[in-house]
Amino acid sequence: MKFKNICSVSLLSLLVTSGVLNADDQETSRVYRPMEAKKVYLQTAGKVSASDLSTAKEREAISEAWKHFDKKEWTSAIEKFLGALSANPKSEVACEGLAMSIYRSGDYKSAYRLAFELQHKMPRVHYVIEEALLADVRELVGEDNISEAQELVAFFPESGTAYAEAHQIVRTTCTITAALHPDQDTTSDPSQFASR
Predict the structure, then answer these.
(1) 73, part of any domain
(2) Of 5, 147, 148, 173, which has the highest C-beta tally within 10 A?
(3) Sign of the dihedral through C-alpha 188, 190, 193, 195
(4) Helices (H), ranges, the chain
(5) Cα 108 to Cα 114: distance, rounded to the nearest angstrom
(6) Does residue 110 form part of some domain?
(7) Cβ neighbours of residue 64 under 8 Å, at least 6 residues apart?
(8) What is the rounded CA–CA span in Å between residue 192 and residue 137?
(9) Are residues 75 and 127 in the same domain?
(10) Are 100 and 128 part of one and the same domain?
């Protein structure tokens, strides 16, 4: 017990003298340590099945698709996500990527239609489009691009939690803008843009 206390005191004094426990208010940088993998699974190579090959094709196509997505090459991303779906038609990741690629390309009607058709089989796809719309509307309104926000929400119905919230944000912003600036022409009815 006495040896343990002596070791603790020695270690503490060593840390203080070495500056590890020194509370320096002048320090302005931090050490960054990226997250490390918690688990790694290794599998020995054995017999390769057709499902393994389609999974490898799917992963490769999805990886390539996200690379195109990051470069904002929407047509290429859409093609690659479709390729991944041909390898595995039940791939929710590929469907999410496809829907977001279509959405980011500006084809909002098709993105909504795809998300709507998949909402019962893959609800995450519908959720991703809803959240993207809501984030975009908030950004546009925050940047005072109200007419662009009106045009955007016109492609989506008011049903659904995020869709309704996006429409409400635009209506409220239009109402407030009209009250504060009566000389500006701000229409609070986004349905005028829905003819696209």
Answers:
(1) yes
(2) 173
(3) negative
(4) 2-18, 50-70, 74-87, 92-104, 108-118, 123-142, 146-153, 161-180
(5) 10
(6) no
(7) 80
(8) 17
(9) no
(10) no
101 and 128 together in one domain:
no
Q: What is the mean pLDDT of residues 162-190?
A: 80
Q: What pLDDT sits at residue 87?
A: 85
CB of 105 closer than 8 Å to CB of 78: yes
Q: Which tokens hold the place of 195?
A: 């003819």
Question: 147: domain range?
Answer: 123-196
Residue 195: predicted pLDDT:
41
Domain co-membership, 127 together with 173: yes
If one counts the domains in the chain, the total is 2
pLDDT digits (tens, 9 = 90+) for 63-76: 999 999 999 999 99
27 three-state secondary structure: coil
pLDDT of 169 higher than 90 = yes
How many CA within 13 A on the CB side of residue 158?
Answer: 10
pTM: 0.65
Whether the CB-CB separation of 156 and 166 falls below 8 Å is answered with yes
In a domain, 9, yes or no: no
Distance, CA of 181 to CA of 192 (rounded, Å): 21
